[in-house]
Structures are given as C-alpha cells and as structure tokens.
Amino acid sequence: MYHDVLVPTDGSDSSTAAVDEAVAIADGEAATVHLLHVIDEGTEMSASAPGMIAPQVTETLKEEAESALDDAERRAEDAGVTYDRTIREGDPHEVIAAYCDDANIDLVVMGASGRSGLKEQLLGSTTERVMRTVETSVLIARP
C-alpha cells in the first residue's frame, strides 16, 4: 500500500518515535523511508540579530540536522529498510509539503510535537500545518 514514507525529523523524542513508526511501516510494506530535516530559515534569520554571528549559527543548525539524520539513518539500517536522507532549508511545513509532491509520498509520519517549546506540546504547530496542507495521509507518532 505504501511505497514512499516521509518522516521529517528534528532529533526530538517525538520525531524519534515517528522514525521508529515509519521504519516499522516501511519494513512491512517494502517501502522507502525518506528521512528529512528542515533547517528553519526563521531560526537562521532570527539568529542573525545584532551581536550574533550568523555563520556559526548556520553551522550549528547543520550539525544538529546531520546528527538527527544520522540517528534516523541508523534506525533504518538496523531494520534493513531502504531509505534516503535529505536536508533542506525553509519554512518546515512548506518544505515538507513540497517534498511530498516532489517525491510522490504516500504517507507522512510525524511526531506530535518537536523541539519548539512547551506551548506546542499538545500538537506541534509544524505537524498541525502539515496535516492541513498536504494531500496525503499523516500519521502522528507519540514517544
């Protein structure tokens, strides 16, 4: 039923749960898991405020992206699941929606909340926006 499963990951407990769900689904369906990390351009821009050094912030964000994807990749490899990994920059929900269209994604598996803070613990704002904008099914995973 599923050929291409997208799992956006930020390394949070919630997104790690999503990776595990996506890997389990892909394993049962012989599907490809698309591991995606979006570097939020809003975070980059807000970090370029006076007194901040933007190149160092950008490098830190890229290191965090690689770390989150390395962990997700290990989980996919351990399960013997086919995967690819991508880092993109932009508004997370817009990048996720575009990726869905570009890669013909059958299912998006997302964490219920990410790293953005306490006010969004019920359902992360990115997850909510993705649910409202993509035309594919979205599975919400909780840690």
Summary?
The protein has 5 helices and 5 strands. By secondary structure, it is α/β, with parallel strands linked by helices. The protein has one domain: HUPs (Rossmann fold).
Task: Please tell me about this protein's structure.
48% of the residues lie in helices and 23% in strands. It contains 5 helices and 5 strands. The longest helix has 26 residues, at 54-79. The chain has helices at 13-29, 41-46, 54-79, 92-102, 125-133; strands at 4-8, 32-40, 82-90, 107-111, 137-141. Helix 1 (13-29) runs parallel beside helix 3. Residues 117-121 have low confidence and may be disordered. With 143 residues, it is of the alpha/beta class. It has a 5-stranded parallel β-sheet, with helices on both faces. It has a single domain (4-114), classed as HUPs (Rossmann fold, 3-Layer(aba) Sandwich).
Count of domains: 1
Low-confidence stretches: 117-121
Top CATH class: Alpha Beta
> What do we call the CATH homologous superfamily?
HUPs
Strand content: 15-25%
| Sheet of most strands | 5 strands, parallel
SS element count, helices = 5
Order of helices and strands: EHEHHEHEHE
Structural class: alpha/beta
CATH fold category name: Rossmann fold
Spatial strand arrangement across the major sheet: 3-2-1-4-5
Q: Could you say what the CATH architecture is?
A: 3-Layer(aba) Sandwich
C-alpha-based Rg, rounded: 15 Å
Question: From the structure provided, what is the oligomeric state, counting identical versus distinct chains?
Answer: single chain
Helix content: 40-55%
- N/C terminus separation: 25 Å
- The average pLDDT value, as a whole number, equals 87
What is the approximate shape?
globular
Number of strands: 5
